[in-house]
Amino acid sequence: MITRLIPSSKEALPVVGLGTWQTFDVSTPSAKEPLREVLKMMHQYGGTLIDSSPMYGRSETVVGELTAGSGLESQFFYATKVWTRGREAGIQQMEESFVAMRRKTMDLMQIHNLVDWKTHLQTLRDWKAAGKIRYIGITHYTDSMHGDLEQILASNPVDFVQFNYSIVSRNAEKRLLSAAADHGVATLINRPLGEGNLFAKVRGKSLPNWAKEYEIESWGQFFLKFILAHPAVTCVIPGTSKPDHMADNAKAGHGPLPDAATREKMAALIAGF
């Protein structure tokens, strides 16, 4: 899989990861089994990043359970979030995330939707200095908060910023993506498939012949390669509970990526449907 460097460390990160919102919030063995296969499939295709949050119900616990004893525990990049107010509440919640995900060190701890971010940022700096976490991040999922994310990047050293971006939701191209690049901040892309709504736009439509030039075999890969072709994108994190969808998503991280002109052609095609 293609990798991009995390600017603050120059560590290489594979460009397709996995989100766990809704998809990993399960409790029965029958529901967990395909998720075990999802993780194996991501590993098989070279992906590493698993993104979760205490906001996502049982997702952190399921990630911890399925990775523990799998023989792949050390092969993944574990990311989660703090989503509460107050220093002590934040510390308690993050400690619980370590237990749920069965981690002694968390690769990335993010401040979810900027909730009480100034308070948590100081804690995260202390934890990073102590080696408890490797990277610090901030997140949001709406266009209206891109300006706030940009302002924080300009005045506070963080390693990652996570936000929404897709072929039909391109607000991040106005300033946020370039701001992240300018400040040396890695980017994680949420809602890359429009929470699945993009597939409704292309239902019954055939891929254009020129998509073959970029080894695009599905509409999912079409949408993800559009995003990954932006040079300021570090990693995209679509969520899925289906191993075949994970394989399809991961394939977007392989092969050639479209150039700027082709990206505009891709966007124009989807806008015309």
From TrEMBL:
Occurrences of domain NADP-dependent oxidoreductase (ranges): 16-260
Taxonomic lineage of the native organism: Bacteria, Pseudomonadati, Bacteroidota, Cytophagia, Cytophagales
Pfam families for the chain: Aldo_ket_red
Top-level taxonomic group: Bacteria
Signal peptide extent: none
Annotated protein name in UniProt: Aldo/keto reductase
